Amino acid sequence: MHMRTNRRAAGVTQEGGAADGNRRSRRAHRARSRKAALAAFALTGVLAATLSAGCAGDSGKAAVKLDPSNPTTITVWDYYNGAQQASFDSLVSEFNSTVGKEKGIYVKSKTQGSVPELEKAISNSAAGEVGAEEMPNVFSSYADTAYNVQRQSKLVDLTDYFTPDELSNYVPDYLDEGRFDNDDSLYLLPVAKSTEVTMLDKTDWEPFAQATGATIDDLATQEGIAATAKRYYEYTDALTPDVPDDGKAFYGRDSLSNYFIIGMRQMGVDLLAPDASGKAQVNADKEKVRRLWDNYYIPYVSGYFDAMGKFRSDDVKTGDIICYTGSTASAAYFPDRVVDDNGTHEIGYRIIMPPTFEGGNAVAPQQGAGMAVAKSDEQHEYASCEFLKWFTEKQNNLRFAATSSYLPVRTDANDIDELDSAIRDENLSVSPKTRDCIAMAMDSFDDVELYSLKSFDNAYAARKVLDHSLDDKATADKAAVQAAIAAGQSRTEALEPYVGDAAFEQWYASFCQQLQAAAEGTE
């Protein structure tokens, strides 16, 4: 999904309607164009399947005979919780009682609690650590983890069990994330994806907008958000003229690594560019990194941005910010009311496309764990792939996506009309926020490049630098500014050591050193 044109921050409101009255007709046109393109892609896949070798039956290898009277048990590890876990468990149960029962496959699923806990469990199992559990047959995984396991030659090449025709049903860019060896091998199957959106507390935005003339279009760029956040701080500070410097933060973001990776890509640079050997070149162009600094660090230490809770949706709930950029999967957690020192009040929401840098390309992250199959024996590998095929069938993929706040991964499921039909026909419990967020993301596919880093050695360490280097400094320096003001300095005096060129130069040198060392594995 690399088709790009200019797009603005029209947004979806709590009432579920599009801000632009022509959105529905544009979406219908795009859907027709998309379906035509996908049909052509599917035809290419069919031709490829016809020309590919052999008598493989309905999978890449000849079908393995299983015994329904003595079913093959496969273990699946995941990191799901809440609605995601309930949705996944429901589908597993359905598989076991229908297709699995018929074919002789029984799926036994287990959650490992969280993404870091799952990654640690997988890494320990793959390394054969003392006390580690045996490797599962299937496990949820982000590309970095799957890549590291595959470097140990412990993952199944899924093209052994999926035909080209079957793989043509998946969004091509999503499949590419699971290709690690610069060939057609596939080690990670997409099952659900997400991107980023900006979510706004519409209720607390409206009086600010009316008083200052701020508009939703101001939030279309990183620079526009920074400028709007400054105006919001000044606006809220002026509400209590007898109390100086008590303005409120406007904005936050969940992922700083996405900010770096996607921001640099928007400006035409791949910050981390892997080569064929699996090593990544660091391209930390100073001028472009300065724009990242100016539009996150400066607003943050100035009090215009904030990050208090575990996620920025938590900060909206406590009234610490009214706008954030985060995963589409976070929509379900956007609060219905704010609880702060002034009491409680209900809020509405508005969903906006994530910002770009002025003059940059429209790029958004493609993220979300896929499923990998561990090497074992042909019987268990085949059974694992049969389950994954069923799990990602169109209707099942739509059910899981809709009820877990993710985007579907199939080309024939990435259409809002298909999603609405699944919600209606399956009587699915899907919040309006989740539905509207998925609709916004689907509607943007023709306008935005969905981008993800190619996997490389030490990718996890490099991403940690991106997540923490600027964020940790901004947090510490903001606290220092606030302490200086409390001690009697003026706001201008307190900020002076942190907002000049010298502060950037010092951080930039450290950042480049840290990122290079992480990418090289010498940290």
Helices and strands: which structural class?
alpha/beta
The span between the termini is 36 Å
Largest sheet: 5 strands, mixed
Strand content: 5-15%
- The average pLDDT score comes to 88
So how many helices? Answer: 20
Helix proportion range: 40-55%
Radius of gyration: 24 Å
Shape: globular
Q: Strand sequence of the main sheet, in spatial order?
A: 1-13-6-10-7
Low-confidence stretches: 1-10, 15-59
What is the count of β-strands?
Answer: 16
What would you say this structure looks like, in words?
The protein is built from 20 helices and 16 strands. The chain has 523 residues and is α/β, with parallel strands linked by helices. It has helices at residues 23-51, 82-97, 99-103, 115-127, 143-150, 164-167, 172-176, 202-212, 222-238, 256-266, 286-294, 297-301, 312-317, 378-391, 394-404, 416-425, 432-443, 459-486, 491-499, 501-520, and strands at 12-13, 72-78, 105-111, 138-141, 189-190, 196-201, 251-253, 272-274, 280-282, 323-327, 337-340, 343-346, 349-352, 363-365, 370-373, 449-451. Strand 8 (272-274) and strand 9 (280-282) form a beta hairpin. The strands form five sheets. A five-stranded mixed sheet has the order 1-13-6-10-7, sandwiched between helices. A five-stranded mixed sheet has the order 3-2-4-15-5. The chain has a two-stranded antiparallel sheet with strand order 8-9. The radius of gyration is 24 Å and the shape is globular. The longest helix is centred in the N-terminal third of the chain and has 29 residues, at 23-51. The chain is 46% helix and 12% strand. Helix 2 runs antiparallel to helix 15 (394-404), helix 15 packs across helix 16 (416-425) and helix 18 runs antiparallel to helix 19 (491-499). Residues 1-10 and 15-59 have low confidence and may be disordered.
